[in-house]
Automatic annotation (TrEMBL):
Enzyme class at the top of the EC tree: transferase
Protein name: GNAT family N-acetyltransferase
Listed Gene3D superfamilies: 3.40.630.30
A GO MF term: acyltransferase activity
Species of origin: Streptomyces kebangsaanensis
Keywords annotated in UniProt: Acyltransferase, Transferase
N-acetyltransferase domain ranges (all copies): 12-162
Magnesium is among the record's keywords: no
PROSITE patterns named in the record: GNAT
EC number: 2.3.-.-
Keyword Nucleotidyltransferase on entry: no
Entry-linked InterPro entries: Acetyltransferase_Butenolide (IPR053144), Acyl_CoA_acyltransferase (IPR016181), GNAT_dom (IPR000182)
Length: 162
């Protein structure tokens, strides 16, 4: 079974991102296979800086494996207005449930912050993922050239009270 389809075999820790994670998170965004080809320009100059990490609730999934606890994925929750701003899983770690773990953690953080909904504007290749993790399609974010020259699906996570 390949790592793209095998379940998590080692513990995953989710912790708050810190400033020293910035370069790793930027590399994860820029190196994402979901942003190859026509999508490459959308992340070519993207930067997750220490200031971004400080300003938002950013969390990383860290593997306890032979790679010495490397960052396998991350997300960022913006509270006002409530939005899942970023969610990335390293290409080699996809298909192992890490994205699902990050979404569950985000929902828990949103609930703790008193939110009842969290919106996400999805990248087209991630649309199926958001359906599978329980997000509901609520509309379309229309193209905004030159930054984003294509329409994107908008989803919403409904956060039930705890």
């Amino acid at each position: 079974m390949s790592s793209r389809t095998s379940p998590i075999s080692r513990p995953i820790t989710i912790r708050r991102a810190v400033a020293r994670d910035a370069k790793r998170l930027t590399r994860l965004v820029r190196g994402s296979g979901a942003y190859e080809g026509k999508y490459a320009a959308a992340v070519a100059g993207y930067r997750v800086g220490p200031d971004y990490i400080e300003a938002h609730r950013a969390y990383v999934a860290v593997g306890s494996d032979e790679h010495g606890g490397r960052v396998l994925g991350f997300y960022s929750l913006v509270l006002a207005p409530p939005e899942l701003d970023l969610l990335f899983v390293a290409d080699e770690a996809q298909g192992r449930g890490i994205g699902r773990l990050l979404v569950a953690h985000m929902q828990s953080e949103a609930r703790a912050a008193g939110l009842d909904r969290v919106m996400v504007v999805s990248h087209l290749p991630a649309e199926g993922f958001y359906h599978r993790v329980g997000a509901v399609r609520i509309g379309t974010a229309f193209a905004n050239p030159p930054a984003v020259p294509w329409d994107r699906p908008e989803f919403e996570f409904r956060i039930p009270p705890g």
